[in-house]
Amino acid sequence: MVIDLTRRPVVINTDICLKWVIVRTASNRDVRGTLQREYEGTRHPSEKSIGNKFIELTPGATRVLGEMIYLESRLIPTRRTKNYPLCAPYEVATVYVDSYTRRRGTWRAQVTLEDAKANWIVSVRDEGSKVDLVMATVKTLEEREEMDHNDSILQLRGPIKPQDEVFPLNRIDKDQTPIKPMSIWERIRNITYGPEGYDD
């Protein structure tokens, strides 16, 4: 799922990154476009401290287009515990383009990923108007920081990963042409069977 906060109304694409929740934002001279939340005692490896009270989610992909820098950040699912029943929501100031007028502006949004036991709930709130804009559910999410195949039997080789393991911005090469997705036979040829990679 990709939540695109660079467009108003907010656009959600559920057909790509099926096991990830990706938030797309944009920065310019006025706003940073990075997701931040209050520090509540736990921090993922993809998050870094900014001051004593806040942490920032490191973008997984960036793309410079003119004066804009587009960022994509992956929300890491966190299971509820007794000490931390809910994860603090992420807040972001981002650039957007109005889909109807094509005018550009900035806005503040709040994004929450909650563990609802049977599934995950993703919600987006407009911080300016205090209005909930979008709520969606996801059945299964990859809960590890990275899709690391070193601890599994099947390993992928080569520079191209399966499409669901690649940030959408990274699916475009430097020439702005989409990376050709692998066919099922190309994926099979890129698989080695064994944690050490038993090649011949």
Q: List the secondary-structure elements in sequence, H or E.
A: EEEEEEEEEEEEEEHE
Mean pLDDT: 78
Number of strands: 15
As for the number of domains, it is: 2
* Sheet with most strands: 5 strands, mixed
SS summary, helix count = 1
User: What is the C-alpha radius of gyration, as a whole number of Å?
Assistant: 18 Å
Class inferred from helices and paired strands:
mainly beta
Describe this structure as you would to a colleague:
The chain has 200 residues and is mainly β. The protein has one helix at 184-189; strands spanning 2-4, 7-8, 11-13, 21-27, 36-38, 47-50, 54-57, 61-65, 68-75, 90-98, 104-115, 120-126, 131-138, 154-156, 191-193. It has 2 domains: 2-138, no CATH class; 149-193, no CATH class. Helix content is 3%, strand content 40%. The strands form 4 sheets. Strands 3-1-4-9-8 form a 5-stranded mixed β-sheet, with no helix packed on it. A 5-stranded mixed β-sheet has the order 2-10-11-12-13, with no helix packed on it. Strand 6 (47-50) and strand 7 (54-57) form a beta hairpin. The longest helix has 6 residues, at 184-189. The chain is globular, with a radius of gyration of 18 Å.
List the helices and strands and how they pair.
Elements: E1 2-4, E2 7-8, E3 11-13, E4 21-27, E5 36-38, E6 47-50, E7 54-57, E8 61-65, E9 68-75, E10 90-98, E11 104-115, E12 120-126, E13 131-138, E14 154-156, H1 184-189, E15 191-193
Parallel strand pairs: 1-4, 2-10
Antiparallel strand pairs: 1-3, 4-9, 5-7, 6-7, 8-9, 10-11, 11-12, 12-13, 14-15
